[in-house]
Amino acid sequence: MCGIFGCVCKKENVAPLIRKGLKRLEYRGYDSVGEATIKDGKLFIKKDAGKIDEVHKKCNLDDLPGRIGVGHTRWATHGAPSSINAHPQFDCSSPPRFAVVHNGIIDNFAELKKELEEKGHVFKSKTDTEVIAHLIEEHFVQKPQADARKTVAKTGISKLEEAVSKSLSQLDGSYALAAISTYEPDKIVCARNESPLVLGISENGQFFASDIPAFLPLTKNAIFMRNGELAVLKDDSFTIKNISDQRIILREPKLLDWTPEMAEKKGYTHFMLKEIHEQPEALRNTLRLQDKYLDLLTTFLDRAHEVIMVACGTSYHACLAASYMFSKVSYLATHPVIASEFSEQHSRSANIDSTILAVSQSGETADTLAAVETARQRAATILGLTNVVGSTLTRVSRVYIVQQSGPEIGVAATKTFTSQLSVLSQLAIQLAKKRGKISTEEIDLLEDKIQLIPEMVEQIIESQESKVSSLAKKLRDEKCFFFLGRGISVATALEARLKLMELAYVPSIAFPAGESKHGPISLIQEGFPVFFICPPGETRKTLIGNISEMKAREANIITVCEEGDEEIIQLSDDYIEVPRGLPEVLSPITYVVPLQIFAYRMATEKGYSPDMPRNLAKSVTVR
Ligand code: M6R
Question: What is the pTM of this model?
Fold first, then answer.
């Protein structure tokens, strides 16, 4: 759960490129940062605890010299955020000869460290990564230059590459890593196992990164590395190999259609706000999905004996909403399961007849991938929904759909959530067509309505943003909120609560409104803020009863309801209106939007950074 980025270029002074690339990866972790470059046979290093801009201000990361370098933005797993624990990590030599950056976790680092210490290696940090630098040092057999050249000519493998390969064979765990050495200052050796790694290929040099935005302004040619692969990058070439047998892998770069601007803030104060505003466009993209993919995926769903949807956080909420959609529209029973719980719940029961629909924006969430792996080992069929082409989820899925939301940089999922919902509802509709359980009129109506959603979201942002902002001002000091809904709106309530908690640090509670009187209502006293999600439809009438119960106990009632729903408005102390006409089963896609804005504004009102909430990272690649 860190960002790595580096390059070897034809021109001098790559340090600013590395800093800017890391900045675009800061969503992956931001407790410390470091860079190392090589010039004239010497390693130059700067690293410290803090966000990239803070460290850069303190020690100018840009004046590291050289055409080759590696960088890292960290989210601590082993060892507190500190200058020593920041990456790059080094070998024993003084000055150091090897520098390593790493994203992932080395499970057996304690054993390796002990062995290395017995051989005389001296460790400085508390990180698991440092063992890699010492292992490389240990395996790097020094030979005279002429001999070394002969070895390369004979085997095609340089000593650095050989040392990295040998080191990798000793590692248990996950990694995307890159190593450079003053002994071979013309190359970067990088490798991947279970943590994301992408190469950027250009005429001016080669790049590696944890994610595409890092090098997007520099090149649009990308190669996605797979587990068990290693790459050697030089300023004019790259080679990819299988780590286990050194077999060369030929893989052409893919031309990306993401523009660098897509990864920038475009004038918004925060990425999150920009991404909230990008929702109409992202939703339009989901409506352009090719029918053949929806059709293929629903063929699997249709034949499935059981469908288990696995995901984490916001993606889990999308699955929860989808379970209502599949049940109501396609008459398919599905089980949404939080991915980290999957093994406990289903490791025995999943089998060849099970179908797993894994939903992950990043396609790299460790818990989701672990659930998928457990299911795969039990011969289940894996289907995927993700936002990242080439992500691990796309590779392990029998069939997958890419939701086309473009990069989401803010830690909080916003546009990727509504896009997931849009794709999942299209799947439900497509499946309904196959199963013939609902009438053609109903299907046509849903298909017509789904087309209107992007415009409705546009309207909500335009008409409700300032109202929601005033509401956040008014409620900024509240210590706890309830978010309540019935039916599919429970998913909306859970998502609204997650957004508020993760961004504004306000402990909040969300549950089906019908549960209030089974316990939680005892918390209610005068002025306690309770949000109700009130779309029209089957649940509305009973929900009005639930609102009245809360009102009778003098709660502060805030509703999200359909435009002009006077009955609800009359019961509300404050209300947010959403355009009319969307069936309840599609309502989470629009009803969640003002609640995203509310969480965003609550965070900014309180002076917190919504793009980088404390203790969180965008992509959770550790379990
Ligand atoms: O990339 P994924 O969709 O697999 O991520 C899953 C969760 O970590 C993620 O949805 C998280 O809950 C959100 N960032 C919260 O806003």
Answer: 0.81
- Cα 318 to Cα 314, 413, 442, 496: the distances in Å are 6, 11, 23, 12
Give CATH for domain 3-262.
3.60.20.10
339 alpha carbon – ligand 1 mean position (Å):
11
Domain map (residue ranges) of the chain? 3-262, 265-438, 465-617
DSSP labels, 516-538 = GGGTGGGG--TT-EEEEEE-SST
| Positions marked catalytic | 2, 618
Q: Do domains 3-262 and 265-438 have the same CATH topology?
A: no
Among residues 427, 465, 469, which one has the least CA distance to residue 279?
A: 465
User: What's the rounded Cα separation, in Å, for the pair 47 and 38?
Assistant: 15
Q: Would you identify the CATH topology of the domain 465-617?
A: Rossmann fold (3.40.50)
- DSSP string covering 232-264: EEETTEEEEEETTT--EE--PPEEP---GGGGS
Name every residue whose Cβ is closer than 8 Å to that of residue 147 and which is 6 or more positions away in sequence.
none
Pocket test for ligand 1, best of 75, 361, 623 (most atoms within 8 A of CB): 361
pLDDT score recorded for residue 258: 77
Which amino acid residue places its CA nearest to atom 15 of ligand 1? 412
Q: Check if the beta carbon of residue 618 is closer than 8 Å to that of residue 27.
A: yes
CATH topology of domain 265-438: Rossmann fold (3.40.50)
CA distance 588 to 519: 26
Instruction: Tell which one of 211, 272, 309, 314 to mutate to probe ligand 1, the residue whose CB is within 8 A of the most ligand atoms.
Output: 314
- How close is the Cα of 220 to the center of ligand 1, in Å? 26
Mean pLDDT of successive 10-residue stretches along the chain, which has 623 residues: 93 96 88 96 96 96 97 85 94 96 91 96 96 97 57 71 96 94 97 93 97 93 95 97 94 85 79 95 89 94 96 98 98 97 88 96 95 96 91 93 88 97 98 94 97 97 96 97 98 98 97 93 95 96 96 97 97 98 98 98 97 87 79
